[in-house]
């Protein structure tokens, strides 16, 4: 994979201008953990060790739906080397937990509701002993018929005391009687993408002398995980500490509570440190997946291709528990028409409980699925009206000041038309040339079966949008502390570095504000004030904002005495390269001299403006910020074999302000590659609720050969005035938009409807005319 | 007290010759031979297999190269996919080189061996259809001496490995004839075959030999289709075929490998697989005759 960043622009300039070590906002500051990660010396949770530790194993349900008649742990307890076995009977605190709604048991007791649901856990002195003991636990099941079709969940027997309907939003916006001259309908399906973090879940629990416990896990939301754990252990929150270890990849809520909670219970029970390392199979079974979604659409447009009305039904499969499903549904319903101006929108959204694998927060949830569908509809409209697919989109683009179907006015920059224009006008990648056909990378890969005569090239467009920060009244606060001492600054913030680059950003902010280059960001734990989950671009916004405020407070503390002494205001002093100078150059001193051995500390919070919950008709100012992206996909399709190769993805994105061009490019490349996975290969199959082949052979991820050239053709820097630095988080929206663009390109290449993601080979085959 | 007993290093033997390896296997009948370990060690790591002892084959230099023997190539079972993929090998047996190059990512190709591909006999083993189409044979070293048998007899279990036997060499007749290997994975990156086709045009015997991999537990040979298309070729002339004949050959092969069930309509997945096999066979024949 290569990336091309086109100039002129700040990105190209800063990448080109390599004068000294980059520092401060807008510079390509490298991440401090890049080298140890590349060298394999960076410690992750699976590398943890404690003297005398025990190993945990979790017994998981082999059935998607069954009643538990009896659990007999006596054989397991009697095994030599086994130190403790815990089941639902051994949970001292709340038996139920959950991120939004406490509807998930720590251990299944009366019923199991999905394949892989934890039933018991064992601690033993060797991992094999623990696994064998878990297998020796006798569970008598009364197998029940699983509900695996979300459409049948409405009428099925309740799978849970809370019922099968987790949330229903009937969004109504405009006139239901409105009709367009042209109407197109479509049915779309999006599969179950797994976050498939490169490191599987792992953790270490260490009991504390005060009767509490410390959990060393790769949590992305340590305070929420701590609160859930404390409630389950029956302890006060301050007696449970979550320490965040190296995070080996996170696309959403990273850790599986089915691992953290048993670990803590076992440590408390045995009084020994307990370690757990999930196998890849357990990882696939336990953590939350992207919601499989069924979407029915009807688009009305006038003869010029202007949208009149969008009607949609969106059905999300939550799996057995609610988790973050109501958030996913809100995003799906609110963005159901996409970044287009539509005067009349009617969307019925449901998220229902089934016995399928659990769904939850995975980057861009809700928005990804609807993007694939509304862009499919835009292509259908273009075909019906004989318009160019880019042109019909251009006629409908949203802009600042327009209304979302939720009734919210778009107040942030929304340069959708500019983004679309950038990708539309970018040069197309050249066709393969040269006489040696064996050197062409055709669909099917190196030395594959590709034949130039059967390959068709297609170009497709998609526009995507996603909200920033939690929606619908979530309190998106973050707190950070900045300290300066001896010319070195330290940042203490519980915002977890998941690989998204928060620590690098925090260093840049402090470098910018305090003018010191040596900035350390301490590891996160729950003794620090909460910073919230690493999701929806929160840390760029609220944690970055909190760091900036704290650094500014330190700056004021540092300069105030100096300014008072010289009778000038603080604003007239500047700090750069460790030196303080006044505007007129009369005063010049160093930071270290001014500090005079003192330590300065400041703690600050950043809390964005409040939002509303969507009401009974899906109306309300639910979102703090929005960000947009346009992607043009160029694909080659072998129309006989149905093999698809994405040649190039051209991306134009609304970023507010470029904070770190190197990280920004990496995030966009990572995002579109994840989107490519959803578009072409990633689907965790679970026929009749049983997860099939939960391993990386059965669940292929994009490799370097699958990943296309990612070409960032434009980064629109229109500052969002309510966001710190005017910057918008960049990771999620490429994930949302790229699958739809790839589908559109395959549609263009083959003429097939391509209404299902991932695109299976049979959907990209052009059938020979029947004789 | 710990139940954890560290695996003793003595459980691993590293013989430096075939004879030593055979002797080591005779000494420890429960020992498992391991070459690249790309399948075996994954099973060990996931706890599915706990071999009492291992006989590592990595130091036996005589099975890590190849030699010529009476118009055939004698390939060591320890040849890695990476080695088979190199141009000098490709000049010798092009189809096997193509199969080796398409097998997995570089890490797997550096470790995985030809012998391992045969011994693990996975339906998706990339070398297997090539060996079937080339009518290769395997030479097994055992306590009672060597024996040679067709690779298909080993793969189908007609004549399995006996206790103490070790897969030592693969004998492949050298043909001065076009041969191709094509594989469909459904993606651009390395992946397991959905279907693969190896095809050899052998003018000396006036035969076309075709083998289809990954659609059945062992590679399939559509013998009738082979004979039919061999009958169409003008062996003394240009040796070309009309595109329609290639297409018909593809359909013939596909129908033979994924047969119709009487009275039952083929499921959509089977229809797609048949279409894939037909396209691969047609392309393979076209390329071999080009």
Topology:
The complex is a heterodimer of chains A (about 775) and B (about 290).
Chain A: E1 3-5, H1 10-16, H2 34-39, E2 54-60, E3 66-72, H3 74-78, E4 82-86, E5 96-97, E6 104-105, E7 111-112, E8 118-124, H4 127-136, E9 138-143, H5 150-153, E10 165-173, E11 182-190, E12 202-207, E13 213-217, H6 222-233, E14 240-244, H7 257-270, E15 274-277, H8 280-286, E16 293-301, E17 307-317, H9 325-334, E18 344-352, H10 367-385, H11 389-394, H12 416-425, E19 455-468, E20 478-485, E21 488-493, H13 502-514, E22 519-521, H14 538-566, E23 573-576, E24 579-582, E25 588-590, H15 591-595, E26 600-606, E27 625-638, E28 643-654, H16 661-680, E29 709-716, H17 732-750, E30 756-757
Parallel strand pairs in A: 1-29, 2-15, 11-30, 13-14, 17-18, 21-22, 28-29
Antiparallel strand pairs in A: 2-8, 3-7, 3-9, 4-8, 5-6, 10-18, 11-16, 12-13, 12-15, 16-17, 19-27, 20-21, 20-26, 23-24, 24-25, 27-28
Helix pairs in contact in A: 6-7, 9-10, 10-17, 13-14, 16-17
Chain B: E1 12-13, H1 18-27, E2 31-34, H2 40-45, E3 53-56, E4 66-69, E5 72-76, H3 81-84, H4 87-92, H5 94-101, H6 106-111, H7 114-120, H8 127-133, E6 137-142, E7 145-150, H9 151-155, E8 166-173, E9 179-184, E10 195-202, E11 207-213, H10 223-232, H11 243-257, H12 268-289
Parallel strand pairs in B: 1-3, 2-3
Antiparallel strand pairs in B: 4-5, 5-8, 6-7, 6-8, 9-10, 10-11
Helix pairs in contact in B: 10-11, 11-12
């Amino acid at each position: 994979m290569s990336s091309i960043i086109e100039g002129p622009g700040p990105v190209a300039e800063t990448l080109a201008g390599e004068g000294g070590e980059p520092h401060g906002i807008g510079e390509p500051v490298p991440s401090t953990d890049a080298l140890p990660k590349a060298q394999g010396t960076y410690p992750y949770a699976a590398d943890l060790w404690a003297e005398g530790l025990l190993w945990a194993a979790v017994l998981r349900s082999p059935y998607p739906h069954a009643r538990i008649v009896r659990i007999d742990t006596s054989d397991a307890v009697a095994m030599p080397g086994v130190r403790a076995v815990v089941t639902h009977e051994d949970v001292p605190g709340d038996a139920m937990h959950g991120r939004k709604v406490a509807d998930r048991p720590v251990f299944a007791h009366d019923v199991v509701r999905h394949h892989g649901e934890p039933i018991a856990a064992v601690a033993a002195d060797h991992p094999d002993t623990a696994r064998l003991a878990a297998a020796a636990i006798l569970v008598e099941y009364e197998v029940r018929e699983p509900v695996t079709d979300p459409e049948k969940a409405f009428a099925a027997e309740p799978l849970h005391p809370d019922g099968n309907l987790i949330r229903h939003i009937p969004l109504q916006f405009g006139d239901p009687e409105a009709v367009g001259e042209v109407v197109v309908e479509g049915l779309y399906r999006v599969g179950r993408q797994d976050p498939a973090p490169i490191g599987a879940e792992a953790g270490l629990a260490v009991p504390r002398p005060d009767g509490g416990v410390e959990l060393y896990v790769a949590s992305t939301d340590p305070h929420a995980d701590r609160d859930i754990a404390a409630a389950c252990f029956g302890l006060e929150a301050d007696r449970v500490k979550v320490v965040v270890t190296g995070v080996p990849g996170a696309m959403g809520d990273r850790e599986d509570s089915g691992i953290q909670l048993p670990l803590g219970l076992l440590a408390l029970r045995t009084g020994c440190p307990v370690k757990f390392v999930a196998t890849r199979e357990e990882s696939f079974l336990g953590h939350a997946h992207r919601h499989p979604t069924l979407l029915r659409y009807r688009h009305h447009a006038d003869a010029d291709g202007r949208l009149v009305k969008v009607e949609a039904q969106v059905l999300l499969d939550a799996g057995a528990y609610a988790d973050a499903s109501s958030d996913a549904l809100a995003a799906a319903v609110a963005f159901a028409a996409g970044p287009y101006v539509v005067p009349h929108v009617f969307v019925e959204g449901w998220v229902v409980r089934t016995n399928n694998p659990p769904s939850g927060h995975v980057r861009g949830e809700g928005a990804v699925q609807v993007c694939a569908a509304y862009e499919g509809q835009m292509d259908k409209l273009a075909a019906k009206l004989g318009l160019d697919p880019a042109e019909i989109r251009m006629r409908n683009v949203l802009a600042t000041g327009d209304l979302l179907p939720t009734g919210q006015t778009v107040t942030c920059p929304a340069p959708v038309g500019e983004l679309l224009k950038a990708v539309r006008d970018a040069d197309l990648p050249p066709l393969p040339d040269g006489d040696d056909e064996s050197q062409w990378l055709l669909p099917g890969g190196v030395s594959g079966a590709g034949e130039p005569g059967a390959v068709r090239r297609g170009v497709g467009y998609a526009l995507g949008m996603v909200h920033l920060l939690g929606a619908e009244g979530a309190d998106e606060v973050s707190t950070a502390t900045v300290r300066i001492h001896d010319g070195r600054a330290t940042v203490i913030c519980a915002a977890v570095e998941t690989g998204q680059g928060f620590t690098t950003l925090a260093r840049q902010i402090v470098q910018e504000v305090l003018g010191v280059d040596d900035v350390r960001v301490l590891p996160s734990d729950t003794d620090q004030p909460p910073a919230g989950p690493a999701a929806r671009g929160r840390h760029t916004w609220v944690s970055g904002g909190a760091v900036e405020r704290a650094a500014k407070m330190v700056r004021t503390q540092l300069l105030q005495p100096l300014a008072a002494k010289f009778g000038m205001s603080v604003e007239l002093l500047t700090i750069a390269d460790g030196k303080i100078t006044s505007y007129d150059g009369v005063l010049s001193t160093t930071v270290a001299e001014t500090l005079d051995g003192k330590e300065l500390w400041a703690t600050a919070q950043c809390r964005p403006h409040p939002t509303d919950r969507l009401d009974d008709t899906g109306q309300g100012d639910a979102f703090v910020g929005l960000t947009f992206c346009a992607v043009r996909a160029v694909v080659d399709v072998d129309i006989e074999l149905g093999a698809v190769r994405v040649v190039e993805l051209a991306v134009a994105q609304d970023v507010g302000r470029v904070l770190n061009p190197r990280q920004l490019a990496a995030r966009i490349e990572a995002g579109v590659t994840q989107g490519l996975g959803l578009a072409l290969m990633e689907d965790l199959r679970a026929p009749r609720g049983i997860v099939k082949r939960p391993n990386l052979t059965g669940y292929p991820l994009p490799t370097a050969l699958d990943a296309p050239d990612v070409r960032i053709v434009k980064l629109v820097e229109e500052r969002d005035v309510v966001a710190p630095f005017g910057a918008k988080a960049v990771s999620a929206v490429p994930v949302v938009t790229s699958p739809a663009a790839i589908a559109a390109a395959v549609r263009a290449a083959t003429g097939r409807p391509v209404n299902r993601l991932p695109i299976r080979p049979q959907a990209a085959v052009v059938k020979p005319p029947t004789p | 007290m710990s139940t954890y007993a560290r695996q003793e290093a003595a459980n691993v033997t590293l013989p430096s010759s075939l004879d030593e390896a055979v002797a080591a296997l005779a000494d420890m009948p429960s020992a498992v031979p391991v070459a690249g370990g790309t399948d075996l060690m994954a099973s060990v790591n996931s706890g599915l297999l706990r071999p009492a002892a291992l006989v590592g084959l990595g130091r036996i230099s005589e099975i890590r190269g190849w030699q010529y023997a009476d118009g055939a190539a004698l390939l060591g079972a320890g040849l890695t996919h990476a080695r088979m993929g190199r141009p000098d090998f490709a000049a010798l047996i092009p189809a096997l080189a193509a199969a080796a190059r398409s097998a997995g990512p570089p890490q797997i190709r550096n470790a995985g061996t030809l012998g391992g591909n045969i011994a693990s006999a996975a339906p998706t083993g990339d070398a297997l259809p090539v060996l079937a189409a080339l009518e290769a044979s395997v030479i097994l070293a055992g306590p009672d001496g060597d024996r040679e048998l067709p690779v298909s007899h080993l793969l189908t279990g007609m004549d399995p490995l006996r206790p103490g036997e070790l897969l030592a060499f693969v004998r492949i007749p050298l043909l001065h004839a076009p041969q191709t290997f094509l594989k469909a994975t459904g993606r651009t990156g390395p992946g397991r075959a959905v279907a693969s086709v190896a095809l050899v045009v052998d003018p000396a015997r006036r035969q076309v030999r075709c083998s289809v991999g990954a659609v059945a537990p062992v590679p399939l040979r559509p013998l009738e289709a082979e004979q039919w298309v061999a009958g169409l070729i003008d062996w003394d002339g240009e040796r070309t075929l009309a595109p329609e004949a290639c297409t018909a050959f593809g359909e013939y092969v596909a129908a033979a490998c994924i047969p119709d069930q009487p009275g039952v309509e083929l499921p959509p997945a089977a229809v797609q697989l048949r279409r894939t096999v037909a396209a691969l066979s047609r392309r393979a024949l076209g390329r071999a005759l080009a």
